Amino acid sequence: MGKVYLVGAGPGDPELITLKAINCIKKSDVILYDRLVNKELLSYAKKGADLIYCGKLPNYHTMKQETIHHFLIRYAKSGKIVTRLKGGDPFVFGRGGEEAEALAKHNIPFEIVPGITSGIAAAAYAGIPVTHRDVSSSVALITGHHKDDKLEGVKWEGLANGVDTLAIYMGVSNLPYIREQLLKYGKSQDTPVALVQWGTTNIQKTVTGTLRTIVDIVREKNIQNPSMIIIGEVVRYREKIKWFEDILQESVPISEAL
User: Fold this and answer.
1) pTM exceeding 0.85
2) Catalytic residue (one of 20, 27, 39, 56)
3) Contact criterion met (CB below 8 Å) for 4 and 84
4) Is 170 one of the annotated active-site residues of the chain?
5) Cα–chain-centroid distance for residue 159?
6) Cα–chain-centroid distance for residue 59?
7) Is 228 an annotated catalytic residue?
8) Among 3, 13, 34, 187, the one annotated catalytic
9) 63 an active-site residue?
């Protein structure tokens, strides 16, 4: 029997991956990796390792989730060391829980290796602290899309009234609906909003506005996924503490392999 490591690769900048995650990559016989994993990280793989792309695009799945489960189980049962390499953190909208369940069902040894999630990292690279003693003591991580393209299950009333900062993943196409729901349940139209596209990479792009204006701004600037949507008063701090985009021209390229 082999073993499976469910590994978070971080948000895009390859230097944000953990040492434990790199060690998993180095010792693996098989690596199944997703679309948003920086390909530079695959250079740590040992010679002869099998590299299998499992990437998913919006509305198009290169490999079905059940097929990924099948590969993980098959390779582990054949005695292989397997790394399932995911962007961000495997348990934050990464289906890591589903994969761990499948492995546990077949009595396959596995470990979870957390990664830095984009909801925190992309905001930080845009100069937005998701918490701040003056304006935000709570953060919610929210999916901006669903397997059936519906978000009715999201508890918008509680989010609008009970959470200071909202970090919404992959929600660009549903932004008009998200805005509508937050306004419906009492969020102010003047609430600041930021979208961070390709966060932590050297093609990062950030736009800001309010719930009143953000849909038009996103359309005008052609912001697309992968993007993080950050909603709350913390967005106002960007003007004071933004740092990454100001040094991009001096930075070593970190997303050429994306």
Assistant:
1) yes
2) 56
3) yes
4) yes
5) 20
6) 17
7) no
8) 34
9) no
